[in-house]
Amino acid sequence: MLITRKMDYGLRIMMSLGLRAGDRVSGADLADAAEVSRGFALKIVRQLAQAGLVLARRGVGGGVDLARDPAQITLYEILDASGSVRPINQCIAEPRLCDRSNACAAHRLLRPIQEKIDHELKSITLADLVAKQRTLNATSQKA
Q1: Is the pTM of the predicted complex or chain greater than 0.85?
Q2: In CATH, what number does 5-86+126-142 get?
Q3: pLDDT tens digit sequence for 3-45
Q4: DSSP states of 82-129
Q5: Residue 1: pLDDT over 70
Q6: What residue segments make up the domains of the chain, in order of their start?
Q7: Within a 13 Å sphere around the CA of 124, how many CA atoms are in the beta-carbon half?
């Protein structure tokens, strides 16, 4: 599985919101925190909102905040909303597209690997990521 730049930016945006959980953040502040152009950040925010991960409001008093508790948002959801998680091989997602999938050793060996990757991505929450980031931030401040 390849994590695209867009997925990485979506993750950065969600991490910024997670670190400020409970606060509404402006699109400009999110873009700065994620080191993404404002236009691209807003495009990703729209996708995250469509996936039900963030609430985005325009105008005075507007901004972006998390739609759910960080412990209820998985890394898989963030990556998928930001750019569509793709399998390590297309035949795993759509075996009917490959006439060989039933008799292919690679398909049979790759499927459990994909299942492990998906399981891991679904087991890591935004709360886990935020906790790890806070630990890293505290460690770097002491150094």
Answers
A1: yes
A2: 1.10.10.10
A3: 889 999 999 999 999 999 788 999 889 999 999 999 999 999 9
A4: HH----SSHHHH-GGG-TTGGG-HHHHHHHHHHHHHHHHHHH-BHHHH
A5: no
A6: 5-86+126-142
A7: 15
